[in-house]
Amino acid sequence: EVQLLESGGGLVQPGGSLRLSCAASGFTFSSYAMSWVRQAPGKGLEWVSAISGSGGSTYYADSVKGRFTISRDNSKNTLYLQMNSLRAEDTAVYYCAKDPAYCSSTSCYPQYYFDYWGQGTLVTVSS
Amino acid sequence: VIWMTQSPSLLSASTGDRVTISCRMSQGISSYLAWYQQKPGKAPELLIYAASTLQSGVPSRFSGSGSGTDFTLTISCLQSEDFATYYCQQYYSFPWTFGQGTKVEIK
Questions:
Q1: What's the 3-state SS for A72-119?
Q2: Which of A10, A11, A107 minimizes the C-alpha distance to A53?
Q3: Which of left, alpha, beta for A8 (phi over 0: left; psi -120 to 50: alpha)?
Q4: Minimum distance, in Å, between the CA of residue A16 and any CA atom of chain B
Q5: How far apart are CA A86 and CA A68, in angstroms?
Q6: B56 touches chain A (CB under 8 A)
Q7: Fewest CB within 10 A of the end CB: N or C in chain B?
């Protein structure tokens, strides 16, 4: 059974930093791209960042580029999001999400939609 | 950036109704569209991908159609557990974007 468990959220002052983690289990973590998607209170979904299975390719929304860094440790089956220079508008529930991937006999290719999601962790940026 | 217009934003319906939700793109995306269901306080769940392919375990009363710029999610016979918010998502081009959401509420 696929499980994604986020942690690391909390209250932080504007300009501060926070690191989110997502512990994955139930699948071959290194074979799948992963993403972070956030949802501000009462609002819709916003894709934030993605990383390839190997970690060699990363992608960011313009709203977080230069402030957030996505990474992964495939030996620990864990995805991370380092968030710096936080702003009030970064307040949201942050979900980690798994890419379903299309796998041939030799390689897996990300699809960039999301077949499993964690339960989310709340980040509140406020003084 | 591909802009998405999802409509309606709020849909009032009764159990047993057939409901449709629309998602229109600012440019063609072939069939690179997914639909998600989200219940209050919960994470989204994948319903449909590739515009019309039902995710494993999703009831057959859900269906998706469309290609290019216009897409539709249909629930053929609304059940009590279907009252939720629904989002479309395009994965044709970076950055991947979501529609604004459609809340399906009890009439």
A1: EECCCCEEEEEECCCCHHHCEEEEEEECCCEECCCCEECCCCCCEECC
A2: A107
A3: left
A4: 26
A5: 9
A6: no
A7: C
The nearest alpha carbon in chain A to B101 belongs to A44
The backbone torsions φ and ψ at residue A14, rounded to the nearest 5 degrees and listed phi first, read -55, 135
What beta strand segments (E) does B1-107 contain? Answer: 4-7, 10-13, 19-25, 33-38, 45-49, 53-54, 62-67, 70-75, 85-90, 97-98, 102-106
For residue A106, what pLDDT is reported? 83
Q: Is B87 on the interface with A (CB under 8 A)?
A: yes
**pLDDT (tens digit per residue) in B38-91:** 999 999 999 999 999 999 999 999 999 999 999 999 999 999 999 999 999 999
- Residue B34 contacts A, CB cutoff 8 Å: yes
The answer to whether B29 faces chain A, any CB pair under 8 Å, is no
Looking at chain A, how many residues does it have?
127
Answer yes or no: are the C-beta atoms of A91 and A76 closer than 8 Å: no
- A122: closest CA of chain B, how far (Å): 11
